[in-house]
Amino acid sequence: MKASLLPLLRDPESHAPLSLEISTQDGDEILEGVLRAPSGKTYRISNGIGRFVPDDEYVGNFSFEWTQHQTTQLDSAHAMRESEERFADSLPYPLTELAGKLVLDVGCGMGRFAEIVLKYGGSVVGIDLSFAVDAAWKNMGRHPQANFLQANVYSLPFAPESFDLIYSLGVLHHTPDPRAAFDQLPQLLKPGGTLMTTFYAAYNKAYVAASEFWRWVLRPVPQPWLYKLAHISIPLYYIWRLPKIGKVFSTLFPISLHPRPEWRVLDTFDWYSPRYQFYYTHPEVFRWYQEHKLQNIVVKGPGISLAGVRGQ
Ligand SMILES: C[S@@+](CC[C@H](N)C(=O)[O-])C[C@H]1O[C@@H](n2cnc3c(N)ncnc32)[C@H](O)[C@@H]1O
């Protein structure tokens, strides 16, 4: 992380500003150090990341997943625009308007969307509860406009009204109480700032039932074994894509049908490994935006993707 982030940071417990002690620095990037609250409480900085949690709590699966797949979904690593297109599908304004904006990526994973913000000239702070932040830092931590913190959405270390854009794509439905997680975010928006979230959709009942059944069956399987098992999606893809019969199979046992094998393995593991997984409809999440008095609420794709603006 960079010292320039300090004015935005607050002690998640007391909400007081923090002071910074640097042990190791490389250019602008603070590699090792300590953030100290007036109460004496400290948060370490290690490997370039401010650590506001002692460990990765219930998201060991995501630490594992993003360490194994640090670049699988990273556009720049594969000369592709898949993450960029997905981000643009959810964003309520053109990507070019990201220039100069201060953006918070909640549940950044290995940084596939943070990379898009940087590409279009924004500054990004990525937070994640898992050690995915270490993968994100390796991918883009030294970029002058990037900062990564290991933190929990339920106790974020930021001053109110800090960000022009806050997004959380495919994250809040993996927390124990998604509504309570959502409630943390609007207060961190500057007046006129935009919140954008994506959740799993509850509409396809057969899909949800099959997914949840298999997630329950596979729950006792240790993660490395589950990861090995997810490789079954590589050959099954060819059967699951057959007309008619493939549809039946993919309803009974959903696997990722992404054309790239490593992406299929990642997504299939991602679907069956989380401790928490919830599904929503558009009206439910729309109400959350309304209850926070967010304005200009728009419904976008994919899944349950909405965005809204904090009033001036
Ligand atoms: C499916 S991944 C999505 C990552 C990224 N947004 C993407 O789309 O590539 C969900 C992420 O949410 C993070 N997460 C889950 N609970 C969290 C919490 N309470 N606070 C912060 N991050 C959390 C996980 O560690 C994981 O990296």
What does this structure look like?
With 312 residues, the protein is α/β, with parallel strands linked by helices. It has 2 domains: 58-200 and 281-309, Rossmann fold; 205-272, no CATH class. 33% of the residues lie in helices and 22% in strands. It has helices spanning 60-68, 75-78, 82-90, 114-119, 132-140, 178-183, 205-218, 223-230, 233-240, 245-252, 261-272, 282-291; strands at 19-26, 29-36, 42-46, 49-51, 102-106, 123-128, 146-150, 163-169, 189-199, 295-300, 304-309. Strands 1-2-3-4-7-6-5-8-9-11-10 form an 11-stranded mixed β-sheet, sandwiched between helices. Helix 8 (223-230) crosses helix 11 (261-272). The radius of gyration is 19 Å and the shape is globular. The model has no long low-confidence stretch (mean pLDDT 97). Bound molecules: S-adenosylmethionine. The site of S-adenosylmethionine has 19 residues, from loops.
